[in-house]
Design goal:
The complex is a heterodimer of chains A (about 110) and B (about 110). The termini of chain A are far apart. In chain A, about 0% of the residues lie in helices and about 55% in strands. Chain A has no helices and eleven strands. The radius of gyration of chain A is 13 Å and the shape is globular. Chain A is mainly beta and about 110 residues long. Helix content of chain B is about 0%, strand content about 50%. Chain B has about 110 residues and is an all-beta fold. Chain B starts with a strand and ends with a strand. The chains are: A mainly beta (about 110), B mainly beta (about 110). At the A-B interface, strand 4, strand 5 and strand 9 of A face strand 5, strand 6 and strand 11 of B.
Chain lengths: ~110, ~110
């Protein structure tokens, strides 16, 4: 009954490959996010979708493409992986209304070799 | 633009001692402020939040935070730290008007010594 679930938990791949990370929430939330946490634990917002519509798109290389097939899912596809993409990627969700805290998944640790 | 500064990268506190983690924000209007905790290998858990009203807010696990507009601060406190409080602590400010998309500070690592 995990609220926000991400798969896979660990992902090790080589430079140049294309990979996807999946996220699903069963909280009935209408907004989902991707955050990147670097090796210094700095959390930076990447994308946000509200009702399947992209509403936040921070300065992220266009090799990163989010896809939201429905309100409960937000996947992250990364093309041509680079060493600098190694990080922990967190999915989160909430309601796009006041007083709605973010609920985070447990993260996906991506290692690019 | 909104920003959050956590001046202390790493703090060590003795078990049973009091704790204060500092957070300063930059925001043009009334901010929505949050503290999250991250245990090793885990996602983030909300400790408490401030939207309006009473400037002293209570959270889970015995934490509280005080909003001080004059100092642009939202410091996190706990009167008596337990070993299980060792974790990474993040202060965040709401990016949108509803305060629901967040930008985070760089975090403070709390170590607890016995």
């Amino acid at each position: 009954d995990t609220a926000v679930s991400q798969t896979p938990k660990y992902l090790v791949t080589q430079m140049g490959n294309d990979k996807s990370i999946k996220c699903e929430q069963n909280l009935g939330h209408d907004t989902m996010y991707w955050y990147k946490q670097d090796s210094k634990k700095f959390l930076k917002i990447m994308f946000s979708y509200n009702n399947k519509e992209l509403i936040i798109n921070e300065t992220v290389p266009n090799r990163f493409s989010p896809k939201s097939p429905d309100k409960a899912h937000l996947n992250l596809h990364i093309n041509s992986l680079e060493l600098g993409d190694s990080a922990v990627y967190f999915c989160a969700s909430n309601l796009w209304t006041e007083n709605s805290p973010l609920h985070f998944g447990n993260g996906t640790r991506l290692t690019v070799t | 633009a909104q920003s959050v500064t956590q001046p202390d990268i790493h703090i060590t506190v003795s078990e049973g001692a009091s704790l204060e983690l500092r957070c300063n924000y930059s925001y043009g209007a009334t901010p929505y402020l949050f503290w999250y905790v991250q245990s090793p290998g885990q996602g983030l858990q909300l400790l408490l939040k401030y939207f309006s009203g009473d400037t002293l807010v209570q959270g889970i696990k015995g934490f509280e935070a005080e909003f001080k507009r004059s100092q642009s601060s939202f410091n996190l406190r706990k009167p008596s730290v337990h070993w299980s409080d060792a974790a990474e602590y993040f202060c965040a400010v709401g990016l949108n008007q509803a305060g629901t998309a967040l930008i985070f500070g760089k975090g403070t690592t709390l170590s607890v010594s016995s």
